[in-house]
Amino acid sequence: MEHILFFLLLGFQHSESVFHAVVSHLPAVLRALATDSEAFTVLSRLGETAHFLMARFPDFPELYNPVEEVLAELKIEPPKEDRMLGKTFQVLGVQISHVNKP
Q: What are the beta bridge partners of residue 8?
């Protein structure tokens, strides 16, 4: 199931609309995942994806503040810079090409 989520979030990088459709729900989802010891991998990867997409579409700081606060609270670090600045970003074995924002 999570493969589909990450594919949808990362596969639509020419517009922020898909990410922005779910961004307001991320704080609650991240906190819920943090309470489930079996969901650590999904929590980490969702946090990385959120970091990546907030960097990809940086013009919305007010929208991202609640997510950034929860990521800091949960100590979820952004992906290493070489993964974020490269041409691809990989989550759960799904490699996504980085599309430059016009």
A: none
Hey, CA dihedral for 8, 79, 99, 25, is it positive or negative? positive
Structure tokens at 66: 């609640």
**C-alpha to C-alpha distance for 56 and 72, rounded to whole angstroms:** 19
Place 87 in a pLDDT band, splitting at 50, 70 and 90.
very low
**What is the C-alpha to C-alpha distance for residues 102 and 95, in angstroms, rounded to an integer?**
21
Count Cβ atoms within 10 A of the Cβ of residue 83 and give its class: 0-12 exposed, 13-18 middle, 19 or more buried: middle
Q: What is the pTM of this model?
A: 0.78
Placement of tokens 């670090």 in the chain: 77
